[in-house]
Structures are given as C-alpha cells and as structure tokens.
Design brief:
heterodimer, A: six-stranded antiparallel beta sheet, five-stranded mixed β-barrel, 36% strand, B: alpha+beta, Double Stranded RNA Binding Domain, six-stranded antiparallel beta sheet
C-alpha cells in the first residue's frame, strides 16, 4: 500500500484534511480550501570525494484558505494533530473576521477545476523504484560521482557534490468537492568545483542533473563537467564595452523568460506594475517567437495537472508569433480586473526553436551551431546578480562567459554586465535552439540576441 | 515565579533526561558532537491592497532539528513532532554521518558532557520567553513589550490604512499602494552534548510598502521596508512618517533618470544601504565554511593588510532591536561583535562551531539557520564599516566623473572568484564633483579584494540600514548592513 511509503501522504493524514474542511464549515466558514503537503528528502554530500554531509528531511504541512462573511484569510500549520484542529481553525476564522470584506474572493468555479488528478501519478513523475532505494546505494552514488582524486593534482582544490532524492506528495481539497493530488519523485546530483591557477586565482564551475526517475539521472558526467567548466574560466581577459551579439546557453536562458511570464501575471498587471500592461492580443515580440505553456507533458519535470487553486492546467500559447495570447489570472484577480480567469501562473514554459528571417537555419540548433550562426559575439554561461524593473522592463545583469569569433571560443570574460530593456532585447532575438535542458521545468533553449550592451 | 526552563521544556514536551538521552544516542555510534534545536514559530501577516486590508493569516511551524558531527562532517535530520519515537528516529538518521564513508583527518573533538542545571545556569539569565514582559537583561538585544502573538490583529488594520493614506497624499502620481505587515515570534531551545541548555525568544516585525507611480504615460515603482527584532510597539507614528516619506522621496529623479554610459569608474556609496557592498564583497567570502573548504578568495589571508588603515569592518549581533541581532546564535553561542577587518588588516572569519574547531579558535556566534529544517552554517548578522573622517560632501567633490548610489535591491557574489554585484535602484552621475543626472536600474560589478583595496575615502556618517534584508545561502537568514559614505575608486557600472 502506498500509505506505507515514507514521504507520501497517509490515509490518516488525508482523513485529517477532510476533517479540516468539515470542521471549518461547522465553525462558520462559508467556503474552505485545504492543501496538504508532504515531502521527504535524503541527501548525501561529499567534500573532495569524502562524505561530508548527510541529511534526512521529512516535511508535512497543511494550508487552509478560509472564506467567511465575505472575507478571506490563509493559514498553515505543521501540527497535524486532530485534537488541535478546532483551536487552529477557530483562531483562523476569528482572524478572517477582523479583515475587510472583499467580494472578489472566492473558490474557483468547479467547472474549471481538475478532475483527472486522482492518484497523483497520472503524469508519470513517480518512480516506483524509489521506496526500495537504500542509504548504502545513495551513499555509493554520491561517492562514485566524485572526480577529485582524478584532478586534484591538476588545479582542482575543492569539489563539493550533493546527491539527493525526494518524494513530494500534495493533495488539494475544497468545499466545492475539489480533490486533486500530485505525486512526484526527484533524483538530483549537483557539484561545484573550484580550481586555482598558477597565480593563485580561483575559479568555480557548477553542473547538475535532475530527473523524476533514477534510471534517467545523468550522474556520471556531472563532476567532470563542473571541473571542465571551472578550468575553462582560467585566464579571463577584458573586453571593450560595446554592443555584441549574445549567445545565452540553455543552462541560463530561463533567466530572461521569467520576467516575461511575471509581467503577464495578473498580480503585476492589476497593480500596473508590469511592462507588459495592455499587451494582450498585441504583437509586441518578434513574429518568429513562440512561447507556450505545456504543463501536461508526461514524465517531464515541471508538469502538473492543476494550479494551487485546483484549476485544471492546459496547454496554451503564451506568446504566439510575437502576439501576447495569455495573461495568468486566478479567480481573485479575474474578479478584481473583470476579465476571464485562466491559470494563476505559467507552469512549464516551452520556447520553440526559431531563426530570424534572413538567417539560414542551421542543420543543428544547439549552442555550438548557434555560435557559428552568430559568427562573433559573447557566449554567456552564467549570471552574477542583477535585476530588472517590473514596471519598465529595464534590466542590468552581471554575466560571465566567453568571447567567440567565427563561432569559436577565444577567451573567457568576467566582471561584465549586460544592460538594456527586456522588450528591446527580445525584439532583437535572432534565434532559439532546440537544446533546452531536460532537467529543468522551464524548457528554454540556447538563445541568440543581437546588439546587447556589454559593460566591462 | 516565572521559570524559563520549564516554559521551554513544557512547550516542547521534553525533560532534561530526554535531552541527554537524545544527544547520547547521537554520539553513541562514533559521533563527536550532537546538538538539538527546538523551534516553535508563529508568523502573522496582513496585506493591504487597493485601500483595504482584505487578506491575512497566520502560520505555525514547530519541530526539532538534530545534528550529529563526526569531526568536520555533518549529519542532519529533523522532525515536526517532538514525541520520543520521532526524535529518536531523527537522531538515528543524523548519526549515519558517523557510520558511512571514509573519514577525513580529525578536527577538534567538541565532546559530550551530561546535562547539568549548573552548566546551563549562566545561559538562562540571557533569555526570557516572549510572553513575559519585563526589563531586559544586559545581554538581551531584543527586548520587547507587546508580544506579536498576543496583540490584536484588528489593531494593526487602521495603522496600515493610515500608512497607505499618507503615501497616497504624499505624491499625486501614486497609482497603487500595497502595504504588508508581517511578524513572527520564535521560541527556541537548544541543547548539546556539552550539556549546554540555552533558551531564546526571538521577535521580528517587518512592514513593507510597494508603490507604483504614473506620470505622462510612464510608470515607476518603489519599495520601502523596515524590519526590527522587537514587538508590536514598533508601530509608531514616527515609523509611519519615516516609511511614507521615503516611499515618495526621489520620484522626480526616478522619472528623469537615464542609463549612464557603462564602464569602469569611481563609485561613491551613500551611507546606510550601501553596506550591501560589504555583505557581498567580503562578508560571504569571510564565512568560514568557504575558507575551511579552501573555496574563498580570502582563504589563508588572515593577518594580511588588505585596505587602508582607517577601514574597520565588523559583523555585529549585538545591536539592540536590529534585524541581525542574536542573543545566541543557532548553536547556543552568545551573540557578539566580530571584527573581520581592523585597521585595514584581516582579523577573523565568521565561525560556526565546526569551522571554529577546524581553525582552533572560538566560535564567533555566526552559526545560524533558517529554521529547524536546516543545519546551522556560518552566516552574517549586521555587517557594517566603522566611520572615518571625511565628509560626504568632500567625498563627492573629490570625484571628477563617476556615480553616486544610495538605494539597492539585491546583490550576489561568486565566492571563489570574488566577483560581486549589486543592483542599484537609484543614484546620480557625478560630474566635476557635483551630483547631476539621476540614474537607476543599473548593476555594478567588482572583485572583493580589489574593491576593498580601492576604497580611498571613508565618511564620518556611519549608518546601519533598517530595511528587511534577507541573505540567501541555500537557506534564508535575516541580516542587516551598513556603511558610511565611501569612495570606491574603480567599479564596473552597467550602462549603454
């Protein structure tokens, strides 16, 4: 029985969540939503090939959204003891009643909620081999992944690796009869290597992989990749400030997509704190750019059948041929703004491969091919701080990477900044590859932009 | 008579015998040290949007974190229940560290001693539970009068509404205002295999506003926050005026601001929030875990002169009511003020118990954690530079061409390389010693040791910022930062 798997919700915990809905209504709530979360993470960390850290993290919490007298509040506790529920809920309802009425608050229309998330395993994100994995096997994977002994005489001064796996189980219920569950496992290895050059300068490189199923985890090459990424940074040279073509690798490209999806969120739009205000249905991006939300992909990280309200996820274009097709609008914001609700946030954004008109589409669409397509420019392989202004789209980010000429890397660059406006930047998109990392929930490939301001 | 020991023991439903049994079990299979961290935190939050406080709530987080050390290595587990079986299971999970993998060379043995009331007696006078109102002990860095847990939520609503009205009245261009008020009180109890039993009750109140302004079809935003380790008495008229005033200050400049031409130039860091420079440029690189692992650019450089003699930089957990204050850190080590740089010379890393044992020094009270779910690691508290002799005006006047910056949103550092960045929300160009064109939304990048060496003037106006700074290092931690006006001769400024 699944209830016996540590980290998964037990029948007793689900019964308490059910009871919570019932008790909240009895205590005076008009509507209620309860979300039960449980997770277990096991971690084995190594330092320089030696076991350095072991963690065992079992989490459990219950969140309760209460609607009473036209008012709303949200509460949570990790004290899942039935005898304490009455007191918790009574205090919660008393708190709600101190707040102002807000007629826009409501549960989602039951017609819009997910009906097909019954077992939690519909999306194929649960690895049935998870319960049989032993501590010895975890430890062995962590230890075997190290390359410290291989490279310690070759500049490697520190290697910090972490193998971890987790199971996450969540159940959402509401007083309209909603009941959806999502269960997933995750197996991950990440490693940071630090190397030292002949002058004592240090450089670090990080690499990782993560998969819902252990058999798919690419653990063997992570440490070597991290080491090589650190070594590749030795000998950085300064570049003159100016405009360059920027190739942004797929490890980092989602950094430039997140501000777009945030700006399309109703919380920003309703506050007029969005540089994409009033853009729905308008072409504000280049026509060769298409971004979709694809949350229903079986077995893919990030997939989910419902949002936090229980609203059914669906595959939908967000930006299609440069036209904004979707705002992310939950029930509350829908009523406040007087527009139709959608989903509260993008779940699994996917940017489609593309090449700007006038450019020859290469046979391959990976990073090296796109550098060749760009000719000269700067390959960005990491961000170092920075931010963007949600109201204007102005951004400035610290970056590191490599100068390249004729599609070939010349030397590393660092202490460098890119600055501009997100709308301008995306309208200068030259190409998007097909090499998005399969371990990420944001499926964004290598990107190429022209005329990016680099300061160095 | 109030008995703090029984308050905490009762809260977590344990006895001294249980504590000793658990730590004994933790080191039974070869562990060198074991500690227990009990936490009961209540968070409250209220949100004003579109003129009404229409959402709010509270959250309860309760549990125990158990750490077993085998020399430098850490085993960690936690339980959200403090029943005997759950805690024993967690101890067994944490003690796996002593059983697997090859051992590294042994560091100092932190050891194990049985519990004794006398051993913890000295600690008790430092602490008191939040429900008790009374005079602070000499080492209570966050005395408070009104416990957030007992205060009526309804009383805060008019306060937030008043703040919103003040902001809206302060500038006709205000389009939207969001006000959030969050508070938390944590009851903490710590016990370790040295027999040390420590208690603490930690309050925190944070009020933040986000304001959107419109002018001629253009939109700008601004956020302001204040955060203190104190009770609900922090919500004064003075605080209202302070926040409302800052929220609408400098909006003309925001609308007029332009991107500067990027490149290397002198940067004058305004007093207060510019302390983010210290946090990113050297604070993280001075956290001793990075140095223990040889990863930091400052590894092995204690005792070196790294900057001008007039520069001293501290990390201080003893500022009363400050967001970074700690009566005890999360390993039960008393809060203290640590000189990282004294008169230009690197003096101390920021240590937790592991790194202190590794380097053979006393812990500095920097072993901190987000919650019982995390093992403690070296973290900053309030990091600031002591004042110098120059005036702000003289420092600005000394710059032919550069920029002046005074408001920030975030920063980051690469520990190995020492490259740090911080994002500037507002500032000015400096031309011929005068502030001229406003600038905003630019990132600045530099290298830690080089930036320190490039500080050529230190102002006489030291200030610690009271904003809600949160440091992320795999886990969040409340901190603060400060600095007098300083001139850094050469940083890279983002621009066109």
């Amino acid at each position: 029985m699944e209830e016996n798997i540590t980290g998964m919700l037990s029948a007793e915990e689900i019964r308490i969540a059910d009871k919570c809905v019932e008790k909240a209504l009895a205590l005076g709530a008009s509507k209620v939503r309860v979300t039960l979360n449980k997770s277990l993470m096991e971690l084995f960390g190594t330092l320089d090939g030696v076991l350095d850290k072991v963690s065992h993290c079992l989490d459990r919490s219950m969140s309760v959204c209460l609607f009473a007298d036209g008012k709303y509040g949200s509460f949570s506790t990790n004290r899942l003891v039935e005898s304490e529920l009455d007191d918790f809920l009574a205090k919660s309802i008393a708190t709600v009643r101190m707040l102002a009425e807000d007629p826009c608050r409501d549960l989602p229309d039951p017609e819009r909620t997910a009906k097909d998330a019954k077992t939690g395993k519909e999306l194929g994100l649960y690895d049935p081999s998870y319960p049989s994995l032993t501590s010895s096997e975890r430890l062995k994977m962590a230890m075997d992944a190290s390359v410290f002994e291989r490279h310690k005489g070759e500049g490697l001064i520190s290697e910090e690796g972490e193998y971890s796996d987790s199971i996450y189980d969540t159940l959402t219920l509401d007083s309209n009869g909603l009941c959806c569950r999502h269960t997933e496992t995750s197996f991950e290895y990440g490693v940071e290597s630090t190397v030292k050059d002949a002058d004592g300068n240090r450089y670090s490189g990080y690499w990782w992989d993560s998969k819902p199923k252990l058999e798919d985890l690419q653990i063997a090459t992570c440490s070597e990749t991290a080491y090589q990424r650190a070594m590749a940074q030795i000998g950085p040279k300064k570049i003159p400030s100016g405009k360059y073509t920027m190739v942004l690798d797929s490890e980092n490209s989602s950094r430039l997509v997140t501000p777009l999806t945030s700006a399309l969120g109703a919380f920003a739009l309703q506050q007029k704190n969005s540089f994409l205000l009033d853009t729905l249905g308008k072409k504000v991006f280049p026509e060769w750019m298409t971004l979709k939300d694809m949350p229903l992909a079986i077995g893919q990280p990030g997939s989910k059948l419902f949002d936090s309200e229980g609203v059914a996820a669906r595959e939908t274009p967000v930006i299609q041929n440069g036209v904004v097709k979707e705002y992310f609008v939950n029930t509350y914001m829908s009523r406040k703004m007087g527009i139709a609700p959608t989903i509260e946030d993008v779940i699994r954004p996917v940017l489609e491969p593309c090449v700007a008109p006038g450019m020859d589409k290469p046979s391959r669409m990976d990073r090296d091919a796109l550098m060749a397509l760009a000719g000269d420019g700067i390959l960005v392989t990491g961000f170092n701080g920075g931010n963007s202004n949600s109201a204007t789209g102005d951004f400035s980010f610290g970056v590191e990477g490599f100068l390249f000429k004729d599609g070939k890397i010349v030397h590393p660059v660092r202490e460098t900044l890119i600055t501009g406006n997100l709308l301008t930047l995306w309208n200068n998109l030259l190409a998007a590859g097909d090499d998005a990392r399969t371990c990420k929930s944001k499926v964004i490939p290598t990107l190429v932009f022209k005329d990016v301001d680099f300061s160095a | 008579m109030f008995n703090p020991e029984s308050y905490y023991l009762d809260l977590f439903q344990v006895t001294p015998g249980t504590l000793e049994e658990l730590t004994g079990l933790g080191i039974k299979k070869g562990g060198s040290y074991c500690d227990l961290f009990f936490e009961n935190t209540t968070y409250h939050e209220l949100l004003l949007r579109d003129g009404i406080v229409s959402s709010g709530g509270f959250h309860i987080d309760y549990g125990i974190g158990i750490r077993v050390l085998k020399d430098d290595r850490t085993g960690y587990a936690y339980s959200e229940s403090t029943d005997a079986r759950s805690m024993r299971d967690a101890v067994k999970a944490a003690s796996m560290i002593a059983q697997g993998g090859r051992c590294r060379p042994a560091g100092a043995d932190l050891g194990h001693r049985p519990y004794s009331a006398a051993a913890s007696e000295a600690k008790r006078e430092w602490t008191r539970p939040g429900s008790k109102v009374g005079p602070a002990t000499p080492n209570d860095y966050y005395p408070f009068e009104r416990d957030w847990r007992a205060a009526e939520t309804s009383g805060f609503v008019p306060y937030m509404e008043k703040l919103q009205r003040k902001i809206s009245a302060g500038d006709p261009r205000v389009l939207k205002v969001i006000v959030s008020l969050s508070s938390q009180v944590s009851d903490i109890m710590m016990y370790n295999s040295l027999g040390e039993l420590t208690f603490d009750t930690r309050p925190m109140g944070t009020i933040a506003v986000s304001v959107v302004f419109g002018q001629d079809g253009k939109v700008e935003n601004k956020t302001v926050s204040r955060s203190f380790r104190t009770g609900a008495e922090m919500l004064t008229e003075g605080l209202l005026d302070d926040i409302a005033g800052e929220a609408v200050k400098g909006i003309d400049e925001r609308f007029a601001a332009k991107r500067p031409k990027g490149g290397k130039m002198p940067v004058v860091m305004g007093a207060g929030a510019s302390g983010i420079l210290l946090h990113e440029a050297m604070g993280h690189a001075f956290e001793a875990d990075f140095n223990r692992k040889g990863q930091s650019i400052f590894s092995g450089r204690i005792g070196e002169k790294v900057c001008r003699e007039e520069i001293s930089i501290v990390d201080d957990g003893t500022i009363p009511g400050n967001r970074g204050a700690v009566n005890f850190d999360d390993e039960g080590v008393p809060g203290q003020n640590t000189f990282m740089v004294r008169n230009g010379v690197l003096e101390s890393y920021l240590h937790d118990r592991i790194s202190a044992a590794h380097f053979g020094v006393a812990p500095t009270g920097n072993g901190r954690r987000e919650s019982f779910r995390y093992a403690p690691i070296p973290r900053m508290r309030a990091t600031y530079m002591l004042g110098g002799k120059s005036t702000k005006e003289d420092i600005i006047a000394s710059v032919k061409k550069g920029i002046y910056v005074d408001q920030f949103s975030n920063g980051q550092v690469q520990i190995g390389e020492g490259d740090f960045t911080f994002f500037v929300k507002s500032g000015f160009l400096i031309e011929d010693g005068r502030l001229t064109m406003p600038v905003k939304d630019i990132n600045i990048i530099g290298n830690g040791p080089q930036a320190l060496a490039d500080i050529t003037a230190v102002g006489n106006d030291p200030k610690v910022d009271d904003g809600a700074w949160t440091c992320g290092k795999g886990q969040s931690c409340p901190v603060s930062c400060g600095i007098p006006t300083v001139l850094v001769n050469n940083l890279t400024v983002g621009g066109e």
